[in-house]
Amino acid sequence: MGAVKLLGTWPSPYLYRVIWALKLKGIPYEYIEQDLDNKSPLLLQSNPVHKKIPVLIHGGNPIAESVIILQYIEDKWPQNPLLPSDPYEKAVARFWVKFADEKGLSIAKVFRSSGEEQEKGLKESLEMLEIIEEHAPGLGQKKFFGGDKIGMVDLTLGWFAQWMGGIEEVTGVKIKEAGKFPRLEAWMKNFKEDPVIKENLPEFKDMVAAMKRRRETLLASK
Amino acid sequence: MAEEVLLFGAWASPYSHRVEMALKLKGVEYKYVEEDLANKSPSLLKYNPIHKKVPVLVHNGNPIVESQVILEYINETWPGYPLLPKDPYERAIARFWAKFIDDKCLLAIFKASWGEEKEREKAAEEVPEFLNHLENELKEKRFFGGESIGMVDIVANFISFWVGAFEEAFGSELLTREKFPKLTNWTHQFVNNTVVKESLPPRDKLVAYLRNRFGGRNVSK
């Protein structure tokens, strides 16, 4: 079928979405770490429009954008499905994937900025978390958003499990007050304890160190 | 059980129009409900409590929201006219461009037309860059979908019709033939397609509406 290559930068949460999908489906791949300050010809060739990671290259064909990659992996390798088979339930899952992906940008704002912009990001992040806590189907009743097994919504929100804590540590901003989002917290625990996920989470201390450096660079460039 | 398909939409909304086109291309019978966005119906708020927006497709009582999610649902639920390619890789490429159009192009066009001052300048630079990517992606194809209209064309409906209306309403120049010959050509092919034409809003009415709704914010220098 062709070799699978994955271009990424550690410890990007977008990268991890793809790693998790590949691991859950048992797909072997070659990981190639990228330097975003000195982009490789392979990256520029594979993602000329956005020049970002992650990029999946399958048999020479590049696919960019993490949620698009997840969908491709699902289409190409149907084992251990990440989406429900029923079209309506699938549509509901797709809605939440989109929601999680878009609103995740608010949390990124908290990480990438300071002052007024950061406050705005925090406000948006809280709104998003409240919506998920209140509206996400299955939350509180099932183990994961996908039901008994991890699905695409879980993977898209997966970065709550580790990265949000990292952002809080690095910025000193508390995004998620303890006890305020009980269902979400229960889900985070289930997610992190899943054997595949557990084995594929960045080490917290190393992640925080990398994030600290990244945040300094981002703030300095403003 | 008889099938029931309802579409909550707004006549001026390109997102709403996308769903109408898809339903028509698939030959699905549906009931259209026009929403007054300044006075949203209880039904709309019930079916889309999170975003409270149109379009909403309700199929046998089940609501689906977000135009691209709806398009995928329509494609999977009703056979016949394919909105997406069968091959997973080609499908991924189509989804990539659909996402690019919504996330980048449309956002930049909105900002360039009525954003805040500094946002507008940046967006004005981005718009031709983004349109160029689309121009290159079109290559020698009649439509983004190839010989026939596909999901990317449908999602790009904004560019084919609303952009022209924007240009007329605000005196801006976004899509010129000189810079984007393929895209301009595509625009003509698209709006002249029978199914598309059937569901487009009247141009004059749209221009007047845009001027009215957004005109105040865009004070040309």
Explain what this protein looks like in three dimensions.
The complex is a heterodimer of chains A (222) and B (221). By secondary structure, chain A is α+β, with helices and mostly antiparallel strands. Chain A has a four-stranded mixed β-sheet with strand order 2-1-3-4, with helices on one face. In chain A, helix 1 runs parallel beside helix 3 and helix 7 packs across helix 10. Chain A is globular and about 45 Å long. Chain B starts with a strand and ends in a 7-residue tail after the last helix. Chain B has 221 residues and is an alpha+beta fold. A four-stranded mixed β-sheet of chain B has the order 2-1-3-4, covered by helices on one side. At the A-B interface, strand 4, helix 3 and helix 4 of A face strand 4, helix 3 and helix 4 of B.
Helix percentage range of chain B: 55-70%
How many distinct beta strands of chain A?
4
What series of H and E elements makes up the topology of chain B?
A: EHEHEEHHHHHHHH
| Unreliable parts of chain A | none
Strand order, main sheet of chain B: write it out: 2-1-3-4
Which residues of chain B sit in consecutive blocks of at least 5 with pLDDT less than 50? none
Write the element-wise H/E pattern of chain A from the N-terminal end onward.
Answer: EHEHEEHHHHHHHH
Protein chain pair with the most extensive contact, residues per chain: A-B, 24 and 24 residues
Largest sheet of chain B: 4 strands, mixed
Oligomer description: heterodimer
Average of the residue pLDDT scores of chain A: 94
Q: What sort of overall outline of chain A do the alpha carbons produce when their principal axes are compared?
A: globular
> Could you tell me how far the N terminus lies from the C terminus of chain B, measured between alpha carbons in angstroms?
60 Å
Radius of gyration of chain B: 17 Å
The overall pLDDT of chain B, averaged over residues, is: 92
Radius of gyration of chain A: 17 Å
Structural class of chain B: alpha+beta
Biggest sheet: strand arrangement of chain A: 2-1-3-4
* Strand-pairing-aware structural class of chain A: alpha+beta
Strand fraction band of chain A?
Answer: 5-15%
